[in-house]
Write a structure and sequence with these properties.
About 35% of the residues are buried. The protein is built from 23 helices and four strands. Helix 4 runs antiparallel to helix 7, helix 4 crosses helix 9 and helix 7 packs antiparallel against helix 23. By secondary structure, it is mostly helical. It has three domains: about 190 residues, no CATH class; about 100 residues, no CATH class; about 130 residues, no CATH class. The strands form two sheets. A two-stranded parallel sheet has the order 1-2. It has a two-stranded antiparallel sheet with strand order 3-4. The two termini are about 35 Å apart. Belongs to the dymeclin family. Keywords: Lipoprotein, Myristate. It comes from Salmo trutta (Brown trout). This is Dymeclin.
């Protein structure tokens, strides 16, 4: 009979020691050790409030377990990186030795055989659909879940920091030869290239997106490395697919994908480089055939589509605010926007304008004072969004007019949309630059009629070069940065445990006992 502290220590030791001799014969035992750690920590599921103490919590935060922190985090990350599939049945793994193999052999064989039945057939704790075919990487999945649980544990009493979060936020690249600061007790090194590849390849689940967010937001070494990559499309494209298929994703997954884009767009190098990456035949984008488009233009299309979906369905204020913030961060670096991307920017403004007019009409017709107050609040919100869209367009015009003839053409084609806002007190200052379209309109009229698309773009390009610089008013640069809430654990701990509940392999808890999150959000 093991005491609680011994059980935790044994699980950690097994996780570390077996990972060093990683073979089929140890896969099942290593999986069981990781799973046992999740079970030991699952007491949080049965409490509505976020727990900041507890027996298992204390064992993990101090004593013998504390010394294993960096090794455990490194092992869990490598389990995720390796993406090892579940080995064949135990009968093919263990060959009976002539001397019987002893007690340890029999124990290992028995554990592995039992666990294989969980992987392949589904045990008593398995949830429907969690079989080997749909979850061929149980150890990778379970390790990632445990890593997220540990990294999101609250800090200890007396502001004692969570050592597992510290380990996640400070590890370095194996290629980094600089010395490790002595004050960073949980520092370790890992192969960034292998981790980056795994992050790119596994962006299908909430937990893979959540660990990407965690590393981008909290580990400056990993963030710097990611932004230095010349193949950022491998990371960005899976995130765009998550947003594109917003109807099939839960709100938390969509939210984390958006935050990842927002963090990336904080960097001007990223905003410039995505317009230099040319993509061919984007088959998953079904609204229009995209045979050739820059990564930057595709990002704009997907973000605008997400805003439009949110406006017509969920109406989540935070979602469209983060979408607009990402577009605003990019706007000064818009380069050679695809014709369709430029059209979608203007069509989004048209949708906002239509919504603004509808609210205005409803407010005018309303006779009840309380209802009028509600409409006034709605009007203020939509006008804030319109203002931000005008600032995004203005930023593009004032910083990269000559790079975006398609946007100028789209503005010319739909210039009547902006007429009603020219005299509006909330928009008069920002409308000045948009009025420069009349300059291009005059040049196009002088060029004749029945102009080809190529000829229109040529006239606009020459007009952009001839336009006096003082005609465009400069405004402060649009820059938004992501900041976590004061108590992020109130969001992340229920979210992480909902992932464990729904995605853990071979784990099952009675839904009636869950208090941490509502089952419809889990």
């Amino acid at each position: 009979h093991l005491k609680g502290t011994d059980c935790v220590f044994v699980c950690l030791s097994l996780s570390l020691s077996l990972s060093l001799c990683y073979r089929d014969i140890t896969y099942s035992i290593l999986f069981e050790a990781v799973t046992t750690m999740l079970v030991l920590l699952s007491y949080q599921l049965f409490h509505k409030e976020i727990l900041r103490d507890g027996l298992i919590y204390q064992y993990l935060m101090k004593g013998r377990c504390l010394s294993l922190t960096s090794q455990l985090v490194k092992t869990l990350l490598y389990n995720f990186i390796r993406q090892e599939k579940c080995p064949p049945p135990a009968t093919h793994i263990f060959e009976q030795q002539s001397d019987g193999g002893g007690l340890l052999y029999g124990l290992a064989s028995g554990v592995a055989s039992g666990l294989w039945s969980v992987f392949a057939l589904g045990g008593a704790g398995s949830k429907p659909g969690l079989d080997q075919e749909q979850n061929p990487l149980p150890l990778s999945n379970q390790s990632l879940l445990l890593l997220l649980v540990l990294a999101n544990l609250t800090d200890g009493p007396n502001n004692c920091p969570n050592p597992y979060r510290q380990a996640v936020t400070c590890f370095k690249n194996t290629q980094d030869t600089s010395s490790i600061p002595t004050e960073q007790h949980h520092m370790f090194q890992i192969n960034f290239n292998s981790l980056y590849t795994a992050l790119c390849e596994q962006q299908r689940s909430d937990q893979a997106t959540l660990i990407l967010y965690t590393l981008l937001h909290q580990n400056t070494n990993m963030r710097t490395y990611m932004l230095s990559r010349t193949d950022m499309e491998n990371l960005v494209m899976p995130i765009l697919k998550i947003l594109y298929h917003v109807e099939d994703r839960n709100s938390h997954h969509v939210y984390m994908a958006l935050i990842i884009l927002l963090i990336l767009t904080e960097e001007d190098t990223f905003n410039r480089s995505i317009h230099e990456v040319v993509l061919k035949n984007i088959t998953w984008y079904s609204e229009r055939s995209l045979t050739e488009i820059s990564l930057g233009s595709l990002l704009i299309l997907v973000v605008i589509r997400t805003i439009q979906f949110n406006m017509t369905r969920t109406r989540d204020k935070y979602l469209h605010t983060n979408c607009l913030a990402a577009l605003a961060n990019m706007s000064a670096q818009f380069r050679c926007l695809h014709q369709y991307a430029a059209q979608r920017i203007i069509s989004l403004f048209a949708l906002l304008s239509k919504k603004h007019n509808k609210i205005l009409e409803q407010a005018t017709q309303s006779v009840r004072g309380l209802r009028r107050a509600d409409y006034a609040q709605d009007l203020n919100v939509i006008e804030e969004v319109i203002r931000m869209m005008l600032e995004i367009i203005n930023s593009c015009l004032s910083n990269s007019l000559h790079h975006n003839p398609n946007l100028v053409y789209a503005l010319l084609y739909k210039r009547e949309l902006f007429e009603q806002f020219r005299t509006h007190p909330s928009f008069q200052d920002i409308m000045q630059n948009l009025e420069t379209v009349s300059f291009f309109s005059q040049r196009l009229e002088a060029a004749g009629t029945d102009l080809s698309v190529e000829r229109v773009q040529e006239v606009i390009m020459k007009g952009a070069q001839a336009l006096p610089k003082d005609r465009l008013k400069k405004f402060p640069e649009l820059k938004f940065r992501y900041v976590e809430e004061d108590q992020p654990e109130d969001f992340f701990i229920p979210y992480v445990w909902s992932l464990v509940f729904n995605s853990g392999v071979g784990l099952n808890w009675s839904p009636t006992g869950i208090e941490l999150f509502s089952m419809d959000s889990g």
